[in-house]
UniProtKB/TrEMBL annotation:
GO (cellular component) term, any one: RAVE complex
One record GO biological process: vacuolar acidification
Any Pfam family: Rav1p_C
Family annotation (InterPro entries): DmX-like/RAVE_component, Rav1p_C, WD40/YVTN_repeat-like_dom_sf, WD40_repeat_dom_sf
Domain RAVE complex protein Rav1 C-terminal intervals: 626-1269
Domain of life assignment: Eukaryota
Organism, scientific name: Podospora anserina (strain S / ATCC MYA-4624 / DSM 980 / FGSC 10383)
Location of region: Disordered: 1314-1363
Name of this chain's protein: Regulator of V-ATPase in vacuolar membrane protein
Signal peptide: none
Gene3D superfamilies in UniProt: YVTN repeat-like/Quinoprotein amine dehydrogenase
């Protein structure tokens, strides 16, 4: 926390109190400062990092204003009183059950009790603490002493004395021996001397319980304005002589001396001095000695000897300031010695200096100022100056500087300003640059604040510029020209205020009439940037009607914001004015819910002059149905008209959002109607990036955007008592990692009970939080211990010279931006892109770096490699790939002057990675890197039998096994299943998966690997399914045949199951089951019996066993439904269907069309849809599914359900994947069907898909791969050049730039029998239309391609067709 503005100080004599309290901390005495701000009591204590550390804010529920506050040093009790005479006592408490270092272990003040005094709004009451918890209350008619330290805990009136005239102030000496009081405009000070303390018994009718006082008058030559007693000694048990300082209106100071704490003599005049200054204060003995000791300890400068002399000669020091740079310091020697004694004190004028810079405090001539001072723990004097215009300024000074006669020496350094509002803040609005904000309270008061950069230690970063005091409701407001001007939109008029001077001026106002409720006040881009005296603002109503105003400012110098104005006119002749210049209608806004200005979020101000999608957005709108739209606008030449353009829009499906916020980067945050669910959208990319549901007690109240200089987004989510900072992260499609992460939580619950009213980002990453009448300003730096991101896990660098500090922008940039080339995600994406030779180069370079690494060395992000190698292309990424021979050739092309990459190389790299921690990687990322290196070594070992798709699956499966313990995934994703499905080395993958399951494959392991989804050979499917059936039977010691019934019955091996039941003699169901299985289930009678048993098992929730009996009854469809609806296992449903009826059965087709494709459409899963279409023989649709939304492909089928707009999962960013473009490139030229599907993709769609995939690479931190993609992508020939015969259709072969003989023919000649020259894998006749189940018949699906590579037969080459 950098700055706190604790609230507007009340303009009362006793609105501020400070003391060195003994009971305010477990570690010892502590400085506590208390002041009144409206209905609140702000309690502060300086900390090592901030002079404005706010301990607590107490809001008083009394509707009458607070008037006075007093702090008791021994007990740290706080007493307050209102104008109605109601007083309250608060005592400190510490929760000792909490950890010692917990911030909640700070002292908290709770109500002890209340008391009542005589009310008089015209004569404010005063408070003063004495000894033993005795409190003096001075009201309009009496003086009262209240006892607050009784064992019973109640507050008891111990003495009361009526007054003939109201007292302006009354103070009790530290030992309760004297009371000094003075009336308004009174020249006599009345001093009450205590004669007895009383017994505390029953009192008289006046409330007296035995305490007795007499009094004397102290005469003065003029009206007395101030009284001050000598403070109590810091050390318990010490006593000092009572001394009273009185000051009259002419600045004359008199010192009155009494006896010690036991003599209680009458006060006598000791001496005096002519202050002659605007303000002054007394540095009392304990503070003076502490300041002297501090100067001696620091021991620098020539003033040390002078300070030592001051400490030796003086008991107190009086400091006077004239407010114009003049300083005068007096020393008081031996205060308390009586005249005529052997040793006599006096007044010593230490220094008088004129024209000191920095001490021209200004203020009006009649402005009242109250000053208090104390010495802090560092031996520096802290001066609290209470200006009655609404601020308390805290200054710090060294005693040596204060008494230095050199006029050039800086005396006081301002370290804090305490100000704010006197009522709860309702709204905070910033200007575009974030250098000025305006705050508005519920009562209508507005304050303009200037955001100052950190020019020195502790300088506040928010400076109050001007207060706009005008009642009335304000719909919207905006800040213009860095806070020089403010525009208010009221109910029927718009106002322009000049905020450059000491007081705000209303320059102009304009009435307006437009139907609907005004929703916003938007600043439109300037037509001419250099015309800084003109601005255009507009409002849009709920009826989609709008009004635009032209605002003319008085001429001013742009570099001087403080030019004085008179009557609304500046230095030139132009007078400030505002006029209506256009009315418009936002036609295409839909069912408009709200319109808001776009949060600039740190964006640079650019005015292109063009109205296009690249222009800066100025507004965001949303409809009741959840459509979010960004708008840009352009003002016509010479201020004639305004044009609006929608730059992007998205149907989010979030109905009636309660809050919406958008940034210029086209990020939008939406909050659900119940304010419990937050979603973050990329409107340009049309994707959902984040969704989080919070508990009902955590109602979302505010959303604010910020952006780092590297264009990384930060979202501040405001709750009632905390603000959660979310930062965007790199996309992680491999691990399905979150796209947004909470990085920091700012809680104000310990400081104030008032809920947050609003928050806003300033320039440079500073966040302003308004809660009640207070403003909390947080900068980018924060403690590492408070970070929600583990600094050790992400290796986040600390600030230079600040080991425990983190920078918010650096943390966010660490979570985003380009990855080092040795990062596991970058290497994984290279492998998916087919850049295996590039991976070898990176790992060889990493090995070389680690070989010569020493402690403290910096590892280059690019390992010294030439960046051209990452995007120049090596042929692997730019063709279909998939053959082991191509992989081998690419591997042999690698040569960097070192030994080839091998499994031994991988072992050596991993051995070094276990000993060396790479700074750019977290611990988990380094484990992932080790696993990738090992996997690359395994792939290299099997390079002759493993193709690229197999390598991709192997890498993904290893990573899945690595994160299985910390993720909820039960199987690998459909992306990895697709790689294995299109692999030609599936037998190697089966062996690999079996080894990963320790040679004993159960259904759980098969489902985890997706084996029965990606196996292409149906014979291999049945073989592996029988292995699983055998392993399921033998997995337990008892060998229960129930566990394997479903699998053997799917294999139609009832006799095997019968034999297993005969051996299960221990099972109580053996006899009945064996007898039942002995029947002939081709007979309808026994099929009906099997169905009855299946339904009986369903009622007993034995679902898997029930599915087995459905298969026994030859009801495959019912067994599939049980797997889907009761077991929720899609893979099991597909597996038993493929085993039971093969890959061409009607149940499998219906399962794929009705269940799989429907699920793919709901989830937006293009991998699943492509797999399903390929299984259906619709390879053209399988290619299109990779590039086209699934619901668009299914919309042509009448039975297909419409897309669910409310399903957010289908809009998630995880439905995108840059690896889709890799599979699309590979499949589109694999067969004639896929080529025909590629012809249905328009060049524009393919262009946008490639650019979109490159953007995903960039968001993943793999920008070099995105550059490689757009640089080397191969587009097909234009369709017009490919038109030939084939019944008027496009000849797919003409789209290729390579030999058509490498393309498998899977389309028959139209209208004739299948060509005898067609490949065995391409004998399915498909219709010409693109609808599933369209016209034309299909033959039985032939045997799928072999799982190992075979040389194609010459008869299968397309050249033999003679096209």
């Amino acid at each position: 926390m950098r700055t706190i503005l604790p609230g507007l100080p009340s303009p009362h004599l006793q609105a501020l109190a400070t003391g060195y309290c003994q009971n305010a901390s477990e570690s010892g005495p502590r400085r506590i400062t208390v002041y009144i701000s409206g209905p609140a009591i702000s309690i502060l204590s300086p900390s090592p990092t901030s002079p404005s550390h706010l301990l607590q804010t107490i809001y008083d529920d009394d509707p009458t204003p607070l008037q006075s506050v007093a702090l008791d040093e021994p007990t740290a009790k706080i007493a307050v009183i209102t104008t109605s005479g109601t007083g309250r006592i608060y005592k400190p408490t510490i929760n000792t059950l909490l950890p010692i270092n917990s911030p909640e272990r700070e002292p908290r003040w709770v109500l002890q009790g209340t008391f009542s005094s005589s009310p008089s709004p015209s004569h404010p009451a005063t408070l003063s603490w004495g000894s033993d918890g005795e409190l003096l209350v001075s009201s309009s008619s009496s003086l009262q002493l209240w006892q607050t330290s009784r064992p019973e805990g109640d507050i008891h009136l111990s003495w009361s004395q009526p007054l003939p005239n109201p007292a302006k102030m009354a103070l009790l000496s530290y030992d309760s021996a004297y009371i000094a009081s003075v009336g308004r405009y009174d020249k006599l000070v009345k001093v009450w001397r205590r004669l007895s303390y009383g017994s505390g018994g029953a009192g008289t009718e006046e409330g007296v319980d035995g305490a007795r006082f007499d009094f004397v008058y102290l005469r003065h030559g003029d009206v007395v304005t101030r009284l001050e007693w000598r403070r109590r000694p810091r050390h318990e048990g010490q006593t000092v002589e009572n001394v009273l300082w009185t000051v009259d209106c002419k600045g004359r100071v008199k010192l009155w001396v009494g006896g010690d704490g036991h003599g209680m003599r009458e006060l006598r005049l000791w001496g005096g001095l002519e202050l002659g200054m605007k303000m002054g204060w007394v540095v009392q003995g304990g503070d003076l000695m502490g300041a002297v000791e501090g100067v001696v300890e620091r021991g620098r400068g020539e003033g040390v000897e002078r300070v030592v002399e001051v400490g030796r000669r003086c008991h107190e020091v009086v400091v006077g300031l004239d407010g114009k740079g003049g300083v005068k310091v007096w020393g008081l020697e031996d205060v308390g010695w009586e005249p005529g004694a052997q040793k006599r004190g006096g007044v010593w004028e230490i220094v008088e200096v004129k024209g000191v810079e920095g001490l021209d405090w200004g203020g009006g001539a009649g402005e009242h100022v109250e000053v208090q001072s104390y010495c802090d723990g560092k031996g520096l004097l802290q001066v609290l100056v209470h200006f009655f215009d609404g601020r308390i300024e805290v200054y710090e000074t060294d005693l040596a500087a204060l008494v230095d006669p050199n006029p050039k020496r800086k005396r006081l350094e301002r370290v804090a300003v305490w100000t704010g509002h006197s009522a709860p803040v309702k709204k905070v609005v910033r200007n575009f640059s974030g250098r000025a904000v305006v705050t508005r309270t519920e009562s209508g008061q507005s304050v303009v604040w200037k955001h100052e950069l950190d020019h020195g230690k502790g300088v506040t970063m928010l400076r109050r510029q001007v207060v706009i005091q005008q009642a009335g409701h304000v719909h919207r407001m905006c800040v213009l020209r860095k806070g020089r001007f403010v525009v208010f939109l009221r109910h029927e008029k718009v106002e322009l205020w000049d905020c450059r001077g000491a007081q705000a001026r209303l320059l102009a106002e304009q009435r307006y009439d437009v139907p609907g409720k005004p929703l916003c006040l938007i600043v439109l881009p300037r037509h001419k940037v250099e015309d800084y005296t003109t601005a255009h603002v507009a409002t849009i109503t709920s009826e989609k009607e709008g009004v635009g105003w032209e605002v003319k400012f008085p001429f001013y110098r742009p570099n001087d914001p403080t030019v004085k104005v008179a009557n609304g006119r500046g230095e030139g002749d132009q007078e400030g004015c505002i006029r209506e210049f256009v009315k418009f209608t936002l036609e295409d806004a839909g069912d408009l819910g709200y319109v808001l200005p776009v949060d600039p979020a740190g964006a640079d101000f650019h005015v292109s002059g063009f109205l296009d999608v690249f222009a800066r957005d100025v507004a965001i709108s949303y409809t009741h149905s959840g459509r979010v739209e960004f708008w840009t606008a352009r003002v016509g030449h010479e201020g004639k008209g305004v044009e609006w353009l929608s730059t992007s829009s998205l149907e989010t499906g979030v109905a009636n959002p309660a809050l919406v916020s958008g940034s210029t980067l086209k990020k939008a945050a939406l909050v659900s109607a119940d304010r419990s669910t937050l979603t973050i959208w990329d409107i340009r990319g049309a994707r959902l990036e984040y969704e989080q549901k919070f508990e009902n007690s955590h109602t979302i109240r505010d959303l604010d955007w910020a952006t780092t200089p590297a264009k990384q987004s930060i979202l501040a989510v405001g709750f009632p008592h905390r603000v959660l900072l979310l930062s965007q992260m790199r996309f992680d499609y491999l691990n399905k990692g979150p796209a947004w992460l909470p990085t920091r939580e700012i809680s104000i619950r310990q400081c104030t009970p008032h809920p947050i009213g609003d928050s806003v980002w300033l320039g440079g990453g500073h966040l302003v939080i308004a809660a009640g009448n207070q403003l909390f300003v947080h900068d980018r730096e924060f403690e590492a211990s408070t970070s929600l991101v583990p600094a050790t896990g992400l290796r986040i660098p600390h600030r230079k010279g600040k080991a425990r500090q983190l920078d918010l922008f650096e943390v966010v940039d660490r979570l985003n931006g380009p990855l080092p080339v040795f990062h596991p995600q970058f290497l994984s994406m290279c492998i998916l892109a087919g850049r295996i030779s590039l991976v070898h180069k990176v790992l060889q370079a990493l090995r070389k770096t680690l070989r010569f690494w020493a402690e403290g060395d910096v590892v280059d992000d690019y390992l010294g490699l030439d960046l051209v190698e990452f995007y120049a292309g090596d042929g692997s990424l730019h063709n279909g790939g998939g053959h082991p021979r191509e992989y081998l050739n690419r591997r042999q092309s690698f040569d960097d002057g070192d030994e080839p990459f091998s499994e031994e190389t991988a072992v050596d790299i991993n051995e070094r990675l276990t000993r060396i921690g790479i700074p750019q990687l977290s611990g988990h990322e380094q484990i992932q890197l080790v696993d990738i290196v090992e996997c690359v070594g395994v792939v290299e070992k099997q390079r002759r039998s493993l193709d690229e798709n197999g390598a991709r699956f192997m890498l993904a499966f290893r990573q899945h096994a690595l994160r299985k313990g910390r993720a909820n995934e039960v199987h690998i994703s459909w992306r990895e299943i697709s790689w294995a499905y299109h692999s030609t080395s599936q037998d190697v993958l089966v062996d690999f998966v079996t080894k990963q399951n320790h040679g004993r494959m159960l259904w759980e392991g098969a489902r985890e690997s997706g084996m029965f989804m990606w196996l292409g050979d149906n014979a291999a499917v049945r073989q592996q399914f029988e292995i699983i059936a055998r392993n399921e039977y033998t997995k337990g010691e008892d060998k229960n045949p129930i566990d394997c019934s479903l699998y053997y019955l799917a294999l139609k091996k009832k006799t095997v199951l019968q034999g297993l039941w005969r051996m299960a003699s221990w099972n109580k169901e053996q006899a009945s089951t064996s007898k039942f299985l002995a029947n002939n289930f081709d007979d309808p009678k026994w099929r009906t019996a099997a169905l009855k048993n299946a339904y009986a098992l369903m009622s007993k929730r034995r679902f898997e066993y029930a599915a087995a009996f459905f298969l026994l009854a030859d009801h495959l469809h019912d067994a599939v439904n049980v797997c889907l609806n009761q077991l929720h296992d899609l893979q099991l449903a597909v597996a038993i269907t493929r085993v039971y009826e093969g890959d061409n059965g009607p149940v499998l087709k219906r399962l794929l069309e009705e269940e799989v494709l429907s699920t793919a459409a709901k989830e937006g899963n293009r991998w699943l849809a492509s797999w399903a279409f390929w299984m259906l023989g619709r390879r053209d649709m399988a290619v299109r599914a990779l590039i086209t939304p699934v619901f668009a492909l299914l919309s042509t089928t009448p039975s297909s359900p419409p897309p669910d707009d409310g399903n957010l999962k289908s809009k998630s960013y995880l439905t995108d994947d840059p690896a889709l473009v890799i599979l699309y490139r590979q499949l589109r030229q694999k067969t004639l069907q896929t080529l025909r599907g590629a012809t249905k993709v328009t060049p524009k769609v393919e262009w946008e898909f490639v650019l979109h995939s490159a953007g995903l690479y960039d968001r993943m931190g793999c920008d070099l791969l995105g550059l490689d993609l757009v640089r080397n992508w191969e587009f097909f020939h234009p369709a017009a050049q490919a038109m030939t015969g084939l019944g008027g259709e496009i000849n797919p072969l003409r789209l290729l730039k390579r030999r058509g003989s490498l393309v498998v023919a899977d389309i028959p000649i139209r209208g004739g029998p299948l060509s005898p020259l067609a490949t065995p894998g391409g004998q399915m006749q498909v219709p010409g239309e693109m609808k599933t189940g369209g016209g034309g018949g299909t033959t039985a699906k032939p045997k799928p391609p072999p799982t190992v590579f075979e040389e194609p037969d010459a008869n299968s080459l397309l050249d033999s067709f003679g096209f």
